[in-house]
Amino acid sequence: MKISTYNVENLFDLKYNGTEYKEYIPNTIWKWNKKTYRAKLKNVAKVIVDINPDIIGLTEIESDIALKDLQKELSRQGLYYRYRAIANKKQTSVRNAILSKYPLRKQEIYISRSRGTRNILEAKIIIEGKPLYVYVNHWKAKSGPESKRIIYAKALKQRLDSLPKNANYILMGDFNAHYEEHKTFIKKRKHNDTKGITGINHILKTVDSNNELYTKNTLQEEGNYNLWMEVPDEERWSHIYKSKKEALDHIIISASLLNKNKNHYVLDSFESFKAPYLFTKSGKKLYRWQRSRSRPLHHTGKGYSDHLPISAKFYID
Fold this sequence. Notes:
The chain is α+β, with helices and mostly antiparallel strands. Helix content is 18%, strand content 26%.
């Protein structure tokens, strides 16, 4: 079974509700209209079809309307998902969502009253009669300090602590934090307002007592394993900002999913999807969803996302 996560970069529908970013208000000078919406759906669907996951977590989906339209477009392209869910209990511009070939039960983890926070989506997925808990995240961007991301991490950790012992769970999505954030942010005053403590590393316990990232050989029962550790250092990235590569998107698994005698992660199956069409001609930048360079600025109907999708395989018996 393949599980993926993908930040699709702002999939808005064509219904105006007042929470849209200005460039996604339908039928304005920005040309977010039926034509560009259809192009966006087709491009996102092409990527997902080429990955062909059984379950995919999605970030930056405006609504269930957009999610349903994507589900339909995927069907047109030959990939069928019977089940879907979106975290829509809080009014935000974009939300976390999931498409699955397996039955699921949805729940949301509330973060705060702040308008900019997005609920974490929990999907309890039943596979061969056994539960797998999947959490789709989209944490506060790095325009804000680490304390803003720790709020998400603590809410998620509280929920994980309430699960049955040795429950299998997968944490995924756009965490807006590098896999070794505890090392990369330490000297950045803008981000380090938490005395060196990070949400992704310390609260979610992806590092040991010596502040070293867990590997598949050192992982302890109380820890979690970040699958970026499965690939060479130079391949650990999913986003490019000002020519700097970072791993902002993650798939993090419970220690129980490394037990080969039960349901488990298939070792060395983790990968980022780097199809040539996801890059510009130079190959140095991601071919993100395009806007015109000349005024009036508008959507061109071309491009994909400013993030790469990542995937991993699991054996469920």
